[in-house]
Design brief:
Length: about 90
Amino acid sequence: MTILLLRCPVLSSSGINQDGTTRHSHQSHKHSDCNRQLVEHPKPQHISDTQPIIDWRRRQKMALVRIARSLQLRESWLRHPCMTIT
């Protein structure tokens, strides 16, 4: 059995405990001080793949909630000022 030592990216400390599973059945962890949630092997999502889809849906005046839900993104990320229609 291998023990994986996770570190909090915010505090750089190792006070991390198991915190159930995600909706995709991956082990979830939570830092005891800052309550940040972590996953051992996160799936990277490339912005360049989704940017044209986001732009098209924004031009169609689709609600940000629907865009975020359909692309599995955070709505707060879509509201960021750098995410404007190009």
